Amino acid sequence: MSDHVLALKGVNAWYGHAQALFGLDLTLDAGETVALMGRNGAGKTTCLRSVMGIEARRSGRIELAGQSIEGLGIEAIARRGVGWVPDDRRIFPTLTVRENLQLVRGIAKRHGRQPMSVDELVEVLPIMERLIDRKGHALSGGEQQAVTIARALVGRPQVLLLDEPTEGLAPVIVQGMAQSIAALPQRYGVSILLAEQNLGFVREVAQRVYVLDIGRLVFQGATAEFMESPELQERYLSVARPTGTDHA
Ligand SMILES: Nc1ncnc2c1ncn2[C@@H]1O[C@H](COP(=O)(O)OP(=O)(O)OP(=O)(O)O)[C@@H](O)[C@H]1O
Ligand SMILES: [Mg+2]
């Protein structure tokens, strides 16, 4: 039996006394892109943070390639091949994009990983070509997002966790990002777990969808199945109509 690249088994998470995840089961297979959907506060970020080992209190089991990551911290989990793009898009404002990426290349090297070159990263996310010598503070939201994704790819992760990469971005930027993200699994063998609320984006990049509602899994299935159900979308998402990657 082949192991999933990532598996969550009965994961619970708490903030103080408030439970944010209830017995979450989720798998991600090699080369797959899986979307984690649900309204604000549904538990998407908590799920990604649980995988990175940074939630204060959780129970259940999380495995990378069949191995439990119990007790490992964020650095050890990153070293095992998990790239994380948090929802804050934080980069060093006074450094150029190139310097921001070089910094992470240095860390990857020290961890014994052969880092992606800046040229390779530009090839993955072409939007960066004209940004490369710009300072972090001079970038738009979409440009910062591209840099944070590139930064997570530097160490050639097996699993990429993306937390709402399209939030607040213009449709044309979202469209470009969809193309870049959709090409990643084939080109770099990375599997992607994507927290996202943008249906149009999910339709373009994900093969399967999990939907959370107040910390509980309420749907899992093929992306096409979810897209064909306006009832499900209306019940569990804030926006029922696909937006973001529409051409109209
Ligand atoms: N640091 C925190 N302290 C206390 N409660 C938190 C904290 N972070 C999240 N929560 C709560 O946990 C629940 C899940 O939040 P989470 O951020 O995982 O949702 P989300 O699906 O990522 O939402 P969004 O779409 O707004 O990013 C919510 O009820 C939220 O209020
Ligand atoms: Mg979130």
Concise description?
The protein is an alpha/beta fold and 248 residues long. It has nine helices and ten strands. The longest helix is centred in the C-terminal third of the chain and has 18 residues.
According to CATH, what is the topology of one domain?
Rossmann fold
Shape designation? globular
Number of strands: 10
The sequence of SSEs as H and E is EEEHEEHEHHHEHEHEEHH
Beta-strand level of the residues, as a percent range? 25-35%
pLDDT < 50 runs, ≥5 residues? none
The DSSP helix count reads 9
CATH H level of one domain: which superfamily? P-loop containing nucleotide triphosphate hydrolases
Could you give the topology of this structure?
Elements: E1 6-15, E2 18-28, E3 33-37, H1 44-51, E4 57-64, E5 67-68, H2 74-79, E6 82-85, H3 97-110, H4 118-124, H5 141-153, E7 159-163, H6 171-188, E8 191-195, H7 199-205, E9 208-213, E10 216-222, H8 223-227, H9 230-236
Parallel strand pairs: 3-8, 3-9, 6-7, 7-8
Antiparallel strand pairs: 1-2, 1-4, 4-5, 9-10
Helix pairs in contact: 6-7
This protein binds adenosine-5'-triphosphate and magnesium ion (MG).
Question: How does this structure look, described?
Answer:
- This protein has 248 residues and is an alpha/beta fold.
- The chain is built from 9 helices and 10 strands.
- It has a domain of 138 residues: Rossmann fold (3-Layer(aba) Sandwich).
- The strands form 2 sheets. Strands 6-7-8-3-9-10 form a 6-stranded mixed beta sheet, sandwiched between helices.
- The radius of gyration is 17 Å and the shape is globular.
- The N and C termini lie far apart (45 Å).
- The protein binds adenosine-5'-triphosphate and magnesium ion (MG).
